């Protein structure tokens, strides 16, 4: 496995663990404590990266976080397509609407200081799709022919 492969797998697993945390924390009704607040704020940050990534793709104007925000946008488009079961490019209006709905669900949870899974359906569904797509991609990646590392002899 090359250094690029390891880096890609690290990013992929990080996304998967983030999605797992979102689903776990938002899956049960409870008050918003520090752990819940942190994950809700990370969701908001992720949604903002998606919006910045879309804007950068649309305008061609890149900033210092372009790789990260365009990567988030790309992941969101793949996830949106999986959610809508469409092969063609996701409709811009529906995609924007989903991002705004997720932002609104998170904003309301923070404002009410309450996690209510029934009021976070778009958010939970979106992150379940990320979880599923990440698992599929990781499985594909891990089923490639494995390389056995061989270490050169240590010379004393």
Describe what this molecule looks like in 3D.
The chain has five helices and two strands. The protein is an all-alpha fold and 156 residues long. The protein has one domain (3-142). Strands 1-2 form a two-stranded antiparallel ribbon. Residues 146-156 have low confidence and may be disordered.
Radius of gyration: 18 Å
How many strands, which pairing sense, and closed or not: the largest β-sheet? Answer: 2 strands, antiparallel
Oligomer: single chain
The low-confidence runs, each spanning 5 or more residues with pLDDT under 50, are 146-156
Write out the strand line-up for the largest beta sheet, numbering strands in chain order.
1-2
End-to-end C-alpha gap: 28 Å
What is the number of independent domains?
A: 1
Into which percent range does the helicity of residues fall? over 70%
Helix and strand pattern: HEHHHEH
Number of helices, counting only DSSP H or I runs of 4 residues or more: 5
Mean pLDDT: 85
Overall SS class? mainly alpha
What overall geometry do the principal axes of the alpha carbons give? Answer: globular
Proportion of strand residues: under 5%
Please give a handful of descriptors for the protein shown.
single chain, 2 strands, globular, 156 residues
Quick summary:
The chain has about 160 residues and is mainly α.
SSE inventory with pairings:
Blueprint: H1 3-26, E1 30-31, H2 34-59, H3 66-84, H4 92-112, E2 114-115, H5 121-142
Antiparallel strand pairs: 1-2
């Amino acid at each position: 496995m090359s250094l690029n492969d390891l880096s890609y797998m690290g990013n992929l697993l990080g996304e998967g663990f983030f999605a797992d945390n979102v689903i776990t924390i938002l899956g049960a009704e409870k008050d918003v404590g520090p752990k819940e607040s942190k994950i809700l704020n990370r969701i908001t940050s992720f949604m903002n990266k998606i919006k910045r990534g879309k804007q950068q793709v649309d305008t061609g104007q890149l900033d210092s976080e372009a790789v990260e925000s365009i990567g988030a946008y790309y992941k969101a488009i793949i996830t949106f397509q999986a959610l809508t079961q469409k092969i063609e490019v996701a409709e811009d209006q529906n995609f924007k609407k989903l991002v705004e709905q997720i932002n609104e669900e998170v904003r309301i949870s923070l404002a009410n200081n309450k996690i209510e899974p029934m009021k976070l359906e778009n958010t939970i569904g979106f992150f379940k799709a990320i979880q599923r797509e990440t698992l599929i991609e990781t499985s594909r990646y891990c089923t490639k022919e494995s390389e056995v590392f061989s270490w050169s002899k240590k010379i004393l």
